């Protein structure tokens, strides 16, 4: 009898131990499934499309590294009756969030309002600032211009090391179509554009510039002038070659856009220049000075930057716009040839 009681107690103890193991295992598994294995705290913009299914949302959350198991996410959604409460819109989630935190964000937080902004190639800093005011992202142009001063960003981005003291980020704010949160600060906007510049103007492209003996600042300066001069894409490398050829012979660049940069003002940042404008005293006036101007005169496209790194191999020193309205140019090696081209294209 005693023996049977001892055996019964052993069996009971084994069953209790087994139950504890099962519960512990379940809790461990739940903790494992509740949290992703990603580095904690990295923001991830996650967009829920209108009428998107929970299956689709769960699959994309796993692809983004935000959850471990789509099945577990869907189970938690259904157990909490949250599968009908997900809102369409844009949300910021963070790696390391628990499944419960993600569900709370997607079902109770207000979606982020986003503003799309198109910055055109060839715009100068002030045009960027005015456009941001027009679409309501900032209240005054000065906010953005102040945020785009180079000194405050120099230590954050290695490609700004060549930036002259006191220079703005003119030329480095990559023109593209962006989406910003409606509450984005001018610093947020500048940071996004510099991040884009760092990705698009690749280290390899920058290394090729260095191999040519050029700083990135010099490349962007030439690229910005090319951007304002070139209408036909195929002419960009040829126009770049003209400017480098003139620099090598210590000739002034005599680029009209640099004078426009000097005399332009709100309402007309790129005016037609006059003989009086050419007399304006400024380091940016390439009729009055030889060598490079102090920096870029606009924010150039990647195509113009590539042309400035890889110019065509020519002996051209001059060009004049064609008179046929195409926007193309006629190029010349000698001044006499250039005068003939002017006469042929514009009648004197």
From TrEMBL:
Pfam families: YceG. CDD domains: MltG_like. The record marks 229 as: Important for catalytic activity. It comes from the Bacteria. It catalyses: a peptidoglycan chain = a peptidoglycan chain with N-acetyl-1,6-anhydromuramyl-[peptide] at the reducing end + a peptidoglycan chain with N-acetylglucosamine at the non-reducing end. Keywords: Cell membrane, Cell wall biogenesis/degradation, Lyase, Membrane, Transmembrane, Transmembrane helix. The keyword DNA damage does not apply. It is an enzyme of class 4 (lyase). One of its GO terms (molecular function) is lytic endotransglycosylase activity. Its EC number is 4.2.2.29. Belongs to the transglycosylase MltG family. This is Endolytic murein transglycosylase. It comes from Thermalbibacter longus.
